[in-house]
Design goal:
heterodimer; A: about 200 residues; alpha/beta; Nucleotidyltransferase, domain 5; 2 domains; five-stranded mixed β-sheet; 5 helices; about 30% strand; B: about 325 residues; 10 helices; globular; binds zinc ion
Chain lengths: ~200, ~325
């Protein structure tokens, strides 16, 4: 099965062509606030490297969030459009699972701005807790109370160096655990903040 | 130049998710618009993040419906035209990405369109557009006098120095507690009004520019003054006074523009072109210019939609205007390039 993996939720842009559990081509680059400009060329380039035609695509696996709102909508727009016009099956996973990969007891944190993070515990590719919003203090408390967890992601927010795990492991683990989307029209990003919070 | 083309057009610049299929620049094969107005009414105006969220909820439904109703397939399409800007950046992104995805999957050219060009070319659905022309563009985001000496050539003669005309209507409607959007409410109420209140004349430095913020403050002051004097406000008469003052300004500047450029046609464009009093007064004013044709877009094509982007797209496509995969949404986007 010819699968396209896309993640635009965070400051990296990740695009990969994957066939039967093997990464055929991969673009993983820093793309802070420029995913929208870079994503289509990255997809095109990945397909060329894999020597695939767009029409051969059978499924798309994307991260539904959490992350930048503009970012998560990028991959989702592409997936929704493709599934609307062609028999392409869509699967979703989370950006936390992508970052954690197959590692055990890994708490992933992603900058959610305003001294908050999107976070969640991932164990061997599965989300233990639902992704949620934490304050920096809460993350620091979790770190103290759970010495056997490893913390990865935007660690600069808790005064450490950012830490990223192996992206290929992340992609393959995500594909293994991704959930199929039955109703493409009902698919929405994992925002973790409701519309009502925008009421003036 | 042959006008044969089939354009798939996508518009998401504000609060409508819209996709259309347009043949030969003026035949509407399908024109699907999903409006968010009911949601934004609850907020009293368009909330940008909420608008982006609704676009992504609607995009697949609108796309499927537009294709199905068109009776054509994506393979038949010559190009994908999309609104590049101006507009809400998060909203624009959805349409731009949807367009790029289709262009990539079907290997079709991408044609970037300025939203205002779309409003102007909406007139192609009712008339043959003649050049040179003067377009009066009036909407929630724009108030512009645009001179076009030929097809797809735009020169802005005048623009607003503060609020757009539709924005002024919304703000005044809020002061008068008429709800959102303000344009239709004021237009309807003004019909029952008469000349009781007098609002000051607008002054702008550049002769063809518009200004509405002074008028908006004058309305607020008048409301407060009536309150102070314990007099009941006649809302219909205030709606009448405000609407007449706004239209005086708009028509006066249009007249001034006609003194500076020689044109064969005047076209009205934009959401506020649905205003019944504007249509009436502009028509009457243009009776004084028997050599200049007047085009007023059909009501269905005054508010934002993708058919108009397809009409402009057909022209831009023939002109060879193209975007590549790295193209992006432009919240602020110059028409004159
Ligand atoms: Zn508009």
């Amino acid at each position: 099965m010819k699968q396209l993996f896309i993640d635009t939720a965070h400051r990296h842009l990740t695009v990969a062509c994957v066939e039967n559990g093997v990464i055929v081509s991969l673009i993983h680059q820093e793309a802070f606030k420029s995913q929208s400009e870079k994503v289509m060329n990255a997809i095109d380039e990945c397909f060329k490297q894999a020597m695939w035609q767009p029409r051969q695509l059978q499924s798309v696996v994307l991260t539904e969030g959490p992350g930048s709102y503009t970012g998560v909508r990028i991959a989702m727009t592409i997936a929704k459009v493709l599934a609307s016009v062609a028999p392409i099956t869509i699967y979703t996973t989370t950006s936390l699972q992508l970052i954690a990969g197959s590692n055990m007891n890994t708490f992933v944190l992603i900058d959610a701005r305003s001294a908050r993070v999107y976070g969640g515990l991932v164990d061997e590719g599965r989300l233990v807790d639902d992704a949620s919003i934490y304050t920096i203090e809460q993350v620091q408390q979790l770190k103290e109370t759970h010495p056997h967890w490893q913390f990865v992601g935007d660690l600069h927010l808790i005064g450490e160096s950012d830490r990223w795990m192996d992206i290929e492991d992340g992609i393959l683990t995500c594909i293994k655990n991704a959930r199929v989307v039955d109703d493409i029209d009902a698919l929405i990003p994992l925002y973790l903040k409701s519309n009502q919070e925008y009421q003036l | 130049m042959s006008n044969k083309s089939l354009i798939c057009a996508i518009e998401t610049s504000c609060d409508e998710t819209a996709i259309a299929f347009i043949a030969d620049g003026s035949k509407v094969l399908s024109n699907v618009v999903s409006s968010q107005i009911d949601t934004h009414r609850g907020f009293g105006g368009v909330m940008p993040e909420v608008a982006s969220r609704l676009h992504i909820e609607q995009i697949s439904l609108v796309l499927k419906e537009a294709i199905e109703k068109s009776g054509v397939t994506m393979e038949d399409v010559d190009a994908i035209a999309f609104t590049q800007g101006p507009g809400l950046i998060g909203s624009l992104h959805i349409g731009v990405l949807a367009s790029k995805t289709l262009a990539w999957y079907y290997q079709k050219p991408l044609v970037p369109i300025h939203h205002i060009a779309g409003h102007i070319y909406a007139n192609a659905f009712v008339t043959e557009i003649q050049f040179p022309l003067l377009a009066l563009v009036v909407s929630g985001g724009h108030t512009e006098l645009v001179y076009m000496k030929e097809d797809y050539n735009f020169e802005i003669l005048g623009t607003t120095q503060d609020d757009a005309i539709g924005e002024a209507y919304d703000k005044v409607a809020r002061v008068m507690e008429l709800g959102y959007p303000g344009g239709p409410a004021i237009d309807a109420l003004a019909k029952q009004g008469t000349t009781q209140y007098v609002l000051p004349r607008v002054r702008t430095e550049k002769p063809l520019d518009f200004s509405f913020s002074g008028l908006k403050s004058a309305v607020l002051q008048l409301v407060l003054k009536e309150e102070r004097h314990g007099r009941e406000l006649d809302k219909a008469n205030l709606a009448y006074a405000f609407q007449e003052a706004v239209l005086d300004e708009v028509l006066f500047k249009t007249k001034k523009a006609l003194e500076t450029v020689e044109v064969r046609q005047v076209v009205l464009a934009g959401g506020v072109s649905a205003n019944s009093r504007l249509r009436e007064r502009l028509t009457r004013m243009m009776d004084g210019y028997p050599d200049i044709a007047l085009s007023i877009p059909p009501l269905w094509c005054t508010t934002d939609n993708a058919a108009m982007i397809g009409a402009a797209g057909a022209v831009a496509f023939k002109k060879g205007i193209r975007a590549d995969f790295s193209t992006s949404a432009k919240a602020g986007y110059d028409l004159e390039v």
